[in-house]
Amino acid sequence: MTITQKENDTMKNEDDVVIEATIPTVDTTPDEDDDGITEDAGSISSKTTATTDKQPLRSVTPTASKIFSLIRTELPLLVLGLILMVVSEAASLTIPLIVALAYDALQTYFIDLEVTMSEINLWMGTAIGVFILSQLAGVARGIILGVLGERLVARLRRQVYASVLKQEIGFFDEHKTGEIVSRLGSDTQLLQSAVSTYAPESLVGFVKVIFAVILMYYINAKLTSVALSGMAVLCLFAIPFGQRLAALSKRYQDALGDAQTRSTEALGNIRTVQSFASEPKELSRYTEKIGNPDENSNNSNDGGNKSKNNNDTEKEDTTYDVGVKKQITQIGLYALVFGGAFTFLYCSLWYGFYLVTIEGSLTLGGLTAFQSYVFIIGAAIGSTVNNAAQLLSAVGASGRVFYLLERQPKIKNHENSNDSDNTGNTNKQAIVPTSPMEGNIVFDNVMFSYPTRPDVLVLNAFSLSLEKNTTTALVGSSGSGKSTVVSLIQRFYDTEAGTITLDGIDITDLDMEWLRSQIGYVQQEPQLFGMTIRENLTYGLSEAAADKITQTEIENACRDANAHDFVSSWPLGYDTLVGERGITLSGGQKQRIAIARALLTNCRILLLDEATSALDAESEHEVQKAIENAMIGRTVVIVAHRLSTIQCADQIVVMDNRKIVDVGTHEELLTGCRRYQDLIKRQSTMMRDVSAGTIQKLLPTDFSIDEE
Ligand SMILES: Nc1ncnc2c1ncn2[C@@H]1O[C@H](COP(=O)(O)OP(=O)(O)OP(=O)(O)O)[C@@H](O)[C@H]1O
Q: In what ranges is there compositional bias, type Low complexity (predicted)?
């Protein structure tokens, strides 16, 4: 079946409409950096956002004051933990000295056994007492710092998540969700370990070395100088190893973050992945970052996908490649530190025996204590190098976390901002109207391009009035900007020029929470949450309102949305769980729940973005009835392709090529707008399931429908 017009118009292909890439009328250069953050020298310039690709998340330089601000609230616990640490370490370090006194008591063994034994009992009893004290302090320190770490990470995750949630939609267009999630999970975890383990352990190691050196000098200065000069040589070799280890740890973490981003993306879209049989492709994308130990090393970086840009000189890091290097460096470092330390230990012991026997400047007990301290220092240096390397990775991770924590959303209420707004005014307060909203929306000369594509103008001098309590349908070719209009009403993005007013007030002056609370929004693919039907329905209400709402109110909204019958037919009714993202519901059921959810908010403005376009005729009919009920007494904007949805609108806006082509009722446009006529003709292909008679009834008499 086709529809032809008697005047014999040429049919145009709506999909051919392409938006030109450069429109000179507006300066669309992105802000240099309005995140409110000073970024890393090595970070990506915001200018690079002028691409269609998702950008890697940036990082900021972590300063000591920023790190301190994280732990400030935990300072009492931290100080207590550090005091216990010093007590525990100081106590354990004195043990070799005390045991040395017991050894020295042996010298009187042949003279007076009783005196010798009483001295040995005294010193060994004291040593055990001090050891128990040191252990108790150590356990208390471990618990305190462990709890501190958990408190810190829980608070940090909440703060970072809160900061991420308030970012503007453009931020999420620009960045991959997986990367954000990885920062929330792994990077904050690394920071927790830094505070509860790496930093205290590094400090413990440092304190141990200092104490041990002091005690060694106390025992014998000459022997200590010999041993320390050996240690100094060791450190000279160990430092570059340590630096390399830190750099490798950072690269490993980065590659792991990228791998997590890719796997999160694939698992989040698993239906698409499986429907295209793209499991191997996704595995390959993941392998590009994880590496494949079973492939020969020349190929391991491309994960089996040889078409990538990487050439041999510019290999991307994989966790496998970097991990292997990291392990080798780590083992090399340990071998150097421990091997070297023990070599010097044995050499200094040798010299120590000389001092005991020939010079007589050292007792046997002193020598055993000295030996213990060299062991302690060797072990402390080894673990400190490792902990310090992890600490450096954590400092790197903190830069990534700070970026999310500090980033200022580009779309925000006036009251949140100290900086000047577009008009140069400062300290403007966001308006919360006291009288009920009427719902008159006016677009005045709006210019808009998306932040991720600032050089492509999507709306060009767009002006439109939407009267209160009327329905406006937006129609037009794909990509003409219909959904963009809907997004701008919700202030998901700000315009570049021109204004959008609601009841005469510029929406950028309105409190954003208030504005959005007045708007019900139903998308083509409505997003439900993995909760019960009831919880999904009350999702748009405040906690207090959700507690107060009655079952009758919920059922009435569902009746208006044609959802009550199917929900109540389920055994658990409104307590039925819908699965992750509403996976257990059909498309039409999800739509109707989403409409009911919007209605329950008592919204004055209802935005329906292609709410029926994905549905079959039967579901569409049900959803259409729901929409008609929902329209009553509201300002409604419908983005629609289906004739059945648009023909009942008070005004139909025909959009094309970034502009409004015509505005009128269905009848007016059919007679006067070529573009609209073309659109209606195209309905013929989309409405094969509707009889010719039905379509003919919707068309004026000068249209005829041919059966193919
Ligand atoms: N988040 C975004 N970031 C960058 N460009 C975008 C974004 N969303 C849409 N666009 C671009 O803006 C233009 C208008 O898109 P919009 O979704 O408003 O069109 P539409 O008329 O609703 O199309 P359709 O009928 O296919 O849904 C298109 O060129 C599109 O590629």
A: 296-308
Give the pLDDT confidence of 464-497 residue by residue, as tens digits. Answer: 999 988 999 998 888 888 999 999 999 999 999 9
Is residue 111 a contact partner of residue 104, using CB atoms and an 8 Å limit? no
Same domain, 319 and 196: yes
What distance in Å separates the CA atoms of residue 473 and residue 653, rounded to the nearest whole number? 6
| Residue 337 belongs to a domain | yes
The residues, ordered by sequence, that sit 6+ positions from 48 with a Cβ below 8 Å of its Cβ are 55
* Residue 423 domain-assigned (yes or no): no
Q: How many domains does the chain have?
A: 2
Mutational test site, ligand 1, from 410, 483, 488, 494, max ligand atoms within 8 Å of CB: 483
Q: Same structural domain for residues 380 and 480? A: no
pLDDT of residue 699: 52
Residue found by looking up tokens 């009553």 in the block: 632
For residue range 377-389, list pLDDT tens digits in order: 877 877 887 788 7
Q: How far is the CA of 399 from the centre of ligand 1 (A)?
A: 34
Asked if residue 269 and residue 381 are part of one domain, the reply reads yes
In DSSP terms, which residues pair with 521 in a beta bridge? 607
Average pLDDT (176-187) is 81
Beta bridge partners of 464: 443
Residue-wise pLDDT tens digits, 638-659? 987 776 677 778 899 998 877 8
Domain match, 391 and 518 both: no
Nearest CA residue ID for atom 16, ligand 1: 481
Is 424 inside a domain boundary? no
Domain encompassing residue 70: 64-406
- Whether residue 591 contacts residue 615, with contact meaning beta carbons closer than 8 Å, is answered with yes
Distance CA 456, CA 445 (A): 17
CB atoms within 10 A of CB 507: 19
Q: In 10 A of CB 293, how many CB atoms? A: 12
Assign residue 579 the CATH number of its domain.
3.40.50.300
Please indicate whether residue 19, judged by its CB atom, sits closer than 6 Å to ligand 1. yes
Q: Say yes or no to pLDDT of 78 above 80.
A: yes
Same domain, 483 and 353: no
Q: What is the CATH number of the domain that holds 171?
A: 1.20.1560.10
Is the domain of 250 the same as that of 392?
A: yes
Asked casually if ipTM beats, i.e. exceeds, 0.95, the reply is yes
Q: Is 481 in the pocket of ligand 1 (CB under 6 A)?
A: yes
Can you tell me whether residue 39 is helix, strand or coil?
A: strand
- Lowest-pLDDT range, 105-109, 203-207, 261-265, 322-326? 105-109
- Name the band, by pLDDT with cuts 50, 70 and 90, for residue 685: low
Do the domain assignments include residue 565? yes
